[in-house]
Amino acid sequence: MYATIAFLIIFVLMMPKIRDPLLQMLGGAGEWIGKYAPFSYIVLGVLMAATIAALALMIKWPGAPEPENPMAKYKKQDIETD
Predict the structure, then answer these.
(1) Phi, psi for 65 (deg, rounded to 5)
(2) 27-30 LR contacts (CB < 8 Å, sep 24+)
């Protein structure tokens, strides 16, 4: 999955019509971070903390229990014959 995403990102960045607006947006984000320095660092910190907390929650979340087989009680029993 990650290889597919990386492959798509490489091809998206190779296209000049898409690359130029993306680079302008990144430049604008860098200017915004510098312009609103204390506030922007708090916002970025909250976003990073939320991402890490979500990942930790997904990793530590207990798995679903295995469902019981409803037909197990009707299992055919071996009958011993003499």
Answers:
(1) -70, 150
(2) none
- The domain ranges of the chain are 2-59
What region, left, alpha or beta, does residue 39 occupy, with left being phi > 0 and alpha being psi -120 to 50 degrees? alpha
Q: What is the pTM of this model?
A: 0.51
3-class secondary structure, 59: helix
- Residues 13 and 17: their CA atoms lie apart, in Å, by 9
Q: What is the pLDDT along the chain (82 residues), one digit of tens a residue?
A: 788 888 888 887 788 888 888 889 989 988 988 898 999 999 999 999 999 999 999 999 998 888 888 877 776 666 665 5
Rounded to 10 deg, the angle between the 16-35 and 37-60 helix axes is 110
Torsion of Cα atoms, 27 then 31 then 34 then 36, to 10°: -130
